[in-house]
Specification:
The complex is a heterodimer of chains A (203) and B (150). Chain A contains 8 helices and 8 strands; from the N terminus they run ααβαββαβαβααββαβ. Chain A is an alpha+beta fold and 203 residues long. Chain A has 2 domains: 40-112, Alpha-Beta Plaits (2-Layer Sandwich); 113-195, Alpha-Beta Plaits (2-Layer Sandwich), CATH 3.30.70.20. In chain A, strands 1-4 form a two-stranded antiparallel sheet. In chain A, strands 2-3 form a two-stranded antiparallel ribbon. Chain B is an alpha/beta fold. Helices cover 35% and strands 16% of the residues of chain B. Chain B is built from 6 helices and 5 strands; from the N terminus they run αβαββαβαβαα. In chain B, strands 2-1-3-4-5 form a 5-stranded parallel beta sheet. In chain B, helix 3 (73-80) links the parallel strand 3 (59-63) and strand 4 (86-90). In chain B, helix 2 packs across helix 5 (128-142). The longest helix of chain B has 15 residues, at 128-142. Classes of the chains: A alpha+beta (203), B alpha/beta (150). The A-B interface holds A 24-26, 28-31, 35, 57-60, 77-82 and B 39-42, 45-46, 92, 95-99, 101-102, 120, 122-124, 127-130, 132-133. The structure holds iron/sulfur cluster (3 copies). The site of one iron/sulfur cluster has 14 residues of chain A, from helix 4.
Amino acid sequence: MPLSLVYYAKEFLRGEWARKFLAAKTAPLEIPPYFRNYPELTGKTCTHHLFCMMACPAPGAIDVISTPEGWKPRIHIGHCIRCGLCVEACPNGVLSSGRILESMFYDNTRLSFSFRIDVDQTKCMGCGNCAVACPVNKLIDAQMSHGGRASTDDLLLKVSEGKCKVLHVEKCTGCKTCEHHCPNEAIRVARLLEAVHAPEEDI
Amino acid sequence: MTMLQSLKNFVRSKSIHVAYVDVGSCNGCDIEVLACLAPRYDIEQYGIFVHNNPREADVLLVIGAYTPGWEEKLKGLWEKIPDPKAAIAIGNCPISGCLFARPHTLVDPPVAKHIPIAVQVPGCPPRPTEILSAILSVAPTVFKDYEVRK
Ligand code: SF4
Ligand code: SF4
Ligand code: SF4
């Protein structure tokens, strides 16, 4: 009996054992350097293309603001889901996060945008707000009257026979101005994001 | 506060009970909270015990964007937790509604409108490390002056 007590004490009063028993054993409370965290500014010049905002899937996560030093993207923590799409979409490498820029460089990939416009013909009332609001239309026909009727077929979209018709979807820049001006939620702009393998000279 | 009282507060802050509630999430954050329990992160080695009994809890983890089904219920649950208590919002959902905060959405974020939130852990989902450090950072403040307040 006394022998076993001595043995017990000898075993458990070792400093090393006591430390291991009482202190936390794993040390996970650090974030690895390759973690894709909130995008950070690299210091490169932003040209206000807004591709970051278009690519962003989270409402209210990113905006591009005008500062005395020029345009600057701003990430809103609490909205941003750290997907890294803005980093990939930016043509100038203004943002960086984790190893996204490096792997884009080595894989020679980039994101390309295209846009699709859907008009729900049962909801469309033919008011023409979309066609009048569209900034692309404004460049083609500055005289466009309210109601969205026009004579030229170069327009991106116009109203004919009481319904909105999309004529040249390839001219769309994806701004969604029409969507915000439609009183009946009849027009929808889809932004199609595609990862493409870029030709050598593109990057 | 006497020496004994501060010692009691200190010891209490080393033994935190955590309950979590999902008020309508995509389950991403729930999985990260569960990852905290797994051996890789092992939340219990810090003296944090996770169970699902609000009557025993000190810290409530709120996950999700607050769907209509939680009206009344979340508040009642919060009131069941004995003082002292703190609520931590896990993920973007309770902070902003995350991807669900779209026009015509049914969710009603932020959760801070409904119960007081002490700490917010942004991310979709946040890393288990971030959840762990958030719980560890509120642990000392929950019981800070409990002995004198009591
Ligand atoms: S990382 Fe994703 S969610 Fe965050 S700002 Fe960029 S695109 Fe939006
Ligand atoms: S999203 Fe396209 S169609 Fe709509 S207003 Fe902008 S450029 Fe015009
Ligand atoms: S914050 Fe993201 S991962 Fe967490 S519940 Fe919300 S949508 Fe899911």
